[in-house]
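Researcher: We're reviewing a set of sequences before deciding which ones to prioritize for further study. For each one, I'd like a predicted 3D structure that I can look through quickly. This is FAD/FMN-dependent dehydrogenase. If possible, include the structure in token form so it fits the rest of the review sheet.
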Amino acid sequence: MPTSTPADHTLGGPGRSWSGTVDYGPGPLHTPTGLEELRALIARSPRIRALGTRHSFSTVAASDADLVTLTRMPADLDIDSTAGTVRVAAGVRYGELALSAHAQGLALPNMGSLPHISVGGASATGTHGSGDAERSLASAVRAIDMVTADGDLLTLSREDDPEIFDGAVLALGALGVVTHLTLDLIPAAPMRQSVHLDFPAARMGQEDLAAMLAGGTSVSLFHHWEGHIAQAWVKQVVGRDEELPETWLGGRRARRPVHPLPGMPADFCTDQSGAPGPAHERLPHFRLEFTPSNGEEIQSEYFVAREDIAPALAAVMPLGERIRPLLHASEVRTVAADELWLSPAHRRDSACVHFTWKQRPEEVAALLPAIEERLAPFAPRPHWGKVFTTAPEQVRAQYPRLADFLALRERLDPQRVFTNAYVERLLGA
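Model: Here's the predicted structure for FAD/FMN-dependent dehydrogenase, in token form for your review sheet.
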């Protein structure tokens, strides 16, 4: 327990999400400036939830009780070049971390499409990049420091706590407030990015889609449910991945930069010229120095087994006429299997069926059950931070280690200090 009670800093209500579609609740929103203040706050709070950069589209962080943000805590970032690790404050954003790592000849194993998200929030919700051999961002975590319900500071690591560590990293904020994470880094290597356009409809079979997704270290396929892939963004390690020809699997090389959403300028996007550059300037879709949009969108995403991506897309394709009026773009990405108990890629090499919707939440919510019904034969796992309507019992059935996670929660938070309606509804008691 903390031995002192530092002054509490609070703001008004926590406000809404980046997209404007999630109301985080009445608050108050606490903004501690140091660890002891945070520990004292949690120790005296009957219920409290941590709030990250507000990029989630689900209510995973919302609460009818108190919330806390770590944005005013010290932005610690300590790189151990010899060990190839970094200990970073949970509120630090991936883009900032990547810049510091690059300055020391190191890089993150993978990055999401947005470099603006925080390390703590992305790890807690299973956020990912893309790549057949690339696991979710949380898989790079090797240790966490967390304030538990009684205000104590608990450190867990992959080496010292192997029996529970995979349940504690990606935990939806339900075990405590993570203050720091230690991540694995890799030696920096230059990367290039190219985009190919307008693949023929005949290339939508499993073999061709697998070949597209294997075309680089990280690949994203954009389409609009019209029966073909419109754009393939291919990110390759220079000197390791074979550079793609002008015409590849029937798609033609883009002659100028493109944005994944039709009609949007490509100014915010990372370099697509094929020129070598740092990984943090190629792996994300969007540049750190720009906000890629004003957030007027909603996102949904479902993980299926990688070998099922072609039949899964084919199953949803008849809904194209209903989907397109509500859609900005859809994306297909891959994520390698991991051991994290609540990871949507738990023990399954996955492909992700992603939707970036227009900001029409009622119409999207009305359409999702039809999409989910068509995906049901493929045992889809929804992304925790995005919008879905899948029944809680169907979600729970996809996680073989759920009982172990609930036992860990009972051990660390028996009074449910860190719960909210989202966690209770989806994970159960």
